[in-house]
Write a structure and sequence with these properties.
Helix content of chain A: 25-40%
Radius of gyration of chain B: 11 Å
CATH architecture of chain B: Roll
Low-confidence stretches of chain A: none
Helix content of chain B: 10-25%
Order of helices and strands of chain A: HHEHEHHEHEHEEHHHEEHEEHEEEEH
Distance between the termini of chain A: 53 Å
Shape of chain A: globular
Oligomer: heterodimer
CATH topology of the largest domain in chain A: Rossmann fold
Number of helices of chain B: 1
CATH topology of chain B: Ubiquitin-like (UB roll)
Strand order of the largest sheet of chain A: 3-2-1-4-5-6-7-8
Largest sheet of chain B: 5 strands, mixed
CATH class of chain B: Alpha Beta
Number of domains of chain A: 2
Number of helices of chain A: 13
Largest interface: A-B, 47 and 21 residues
CATH class of the largest domain in chain A: Alpha Beta
CATH superfamily of the largest domain in chain A: NAD(P)-binding Rossmann-like Domain
Radius of gyration of chain A: 20 Å
Strand order of the largest sheet of chain B: 2-1-5-3-4
Mean pLDDT of chain A: 92
Strand content of chain A: 15-25%
CATH superfamily of chain B: Beta-grasp domain
Number of domains of chain B: 1
Number of strands of chain A: 14
């Protein structure tokens, strides 16, 4: 317990609080900028069981803000969930950390949040957040929304049944392409650290059983315009007509199986997901693809390049095709080289 | 009329509803939350809630990055 001595000294945590943290289970959705910062704070605080979920791999453009990753990770294109898992285990070997390289979607979200005391939002898109909101409200699991773009960020703690949920405040998911993303408007690390510091403070209160200490606001901050503002939220701010927490119609979970090909907003990339997940044989695939383009593979993924496109394949059959936002073109590329 | 928007005094045309204000400011309502005098105004009521002189409004832009 020596490693936790300074936070045990802090009256808000104490020994009892520390024991509760060590017994706590947190699922972290997304392991990029927000997710990495969240993960590091949770691991150092001694949250006992951390599940990290991310579908992506590390690129050089991530290094300005994704604090767990190094140049070597970008060079090797490590999956974020694996690199984060390894880094967290080096930070704190006394807790259990599991990294999962997988897509959070209609089929997977409920099992990924199941059993968690708390879910933390470290994702980079609206769609996943609405899915997480549905899954957490349905299962009665608190979750903490956090998001950032540019120097602006916001966060809100959702305790099902007690506070408004995400859909009480933002009922409809913004149409694709209408909002700025980190890939269109940029992002600086300080807003990531600010938002995640607020998220983890709330997480520590929740996990140690101190709901009365929760902030109770939608906090929105612009570090460039020096604006720190709170919108007060209470049980009375819940919208009785909210489809999710008011009427318990979980529309995002009920959506027909998501499109198997998904344009990744602002990234000029498309994710392809096979209808049936069949583990890929990288050795066989490399032998086949090396005749038509360049191939680099490691234990987690295989990168295939032609003159026009670059495709990163994961073991579960998923691929991210870079250099196009045209879903049909990307599907065609995948079908041509991997199979349909 | 005079209102406060995110703490800053603004003069806006009389008789606007929340929906009309959002359109007036050209804010793209699809990714906005509005609080009026301490209460969240659900999206479904934007058309029917009129603003009054002296209102304190918070307009919160929803972001999805991270």
């Amino acid at each position: 317990m020596e490693r936790y001595s300074r936070q045990i000294l802090f009256s808000g945590i104490g020994e009892a609080g520390q024991r509760r943290l060590l017994e706590s289970r947190v699922t972290l959705i997304g392991c990029g900028a927000l997710g990495g910062a969240l993960a590091e704070m949770l691991a150092r605080a001694g949250v006992g069981f951390i599940r990290l979920v991310d579908r992506d791999f590390i690129e050089w453009s991530n290094l300005n803000r994704q604090v767990l990753f190094t140049e070597a990770d970008a060079e090797a294109r490590m999956p974020k969930a694996i690199a984060a898992q390894n880094r967290l285990r080096a930070i704190n070997s006394e807790i259990e950390v599991t990294g999962l390289v997988t897509d959070v979607n209609v089929d997977t979200v409920e099992s990924l949040v199941a059993g968690a005391d708390l879910v933390l939002d470290g994702t980079d898109n609206f769609e996943t957040r609405y899915l997480v909101n549905d899954a957490c409200v349905k299962a009665g699991i608190p979750w903490i929304y956090g998001a950032a773009v540019g120097a602006y960020g916001m966060t809100m703690t959702i305790v099902p049944g007690e506070t408004p949920c995400l859909r009480c405040i933002f009922e409809e998911m913004p149409p694709v392409g209408t909002a700025q993303t980190c890939d269109t408007a940029g992002i600086i690390l300080p807003i990531i650290q600010t938002v995640t510091a607020a998220q983890v403070s709330e997480a520590l209160k929740l996990l140690t059983g101190q709901r009365e200490k929760l902030r109770g606001t939608l906090l929105h901050i612009d570090l460039w315009d020096n604006s720190y503002r709170n919108v007060k939220l209470s049980a009375g701010s819940r919208n009785p007509e909210c489809p999710c927490c008011g009427q318990r119609r979980f529309e995002f979970l009920a959506a027909a199986h998501e499109a198997l090909a998904l344009s990744l907003c602002g990234r000029n990339s498309v994710q392809i997901r096979p209808a049936k997940s069949v583990p890929l044989d990288f050795v066989e695939l490399e032998a086949r693809l090396v005749r038509v383009g360049s191939v680099r593979a490691n234990e987690h993924l295989l990168v295939f390049r032609t003159d026009d496109h670059e495709m990163t394949l994961f073991r579960d059959g998923r691929a991210i095709v870079k250099g196009t936002s045209d879903v049909q073109a990307a599907r065609g590329f995948y079908a041509k080289y991997v199979g349909s | 009329m005079n209102v406060l928007i995110n703490g800053a005094p603004e003069i806006i045309p009389d008789g606007l509803t929340v929906a009309a204000l959002v359109a007036h400011l050209d804010l793209g309502g699809g990714r906005l939350a509005v609080e009026r005098n301490g209460e969240i105004v659900p999206r479904g009521r934007w058309e029917s809630v009129p603003l009054a002189d002296g209102d304190k409004l918070e307009l919160v832009h929803f972001v999805g990055g991270g």
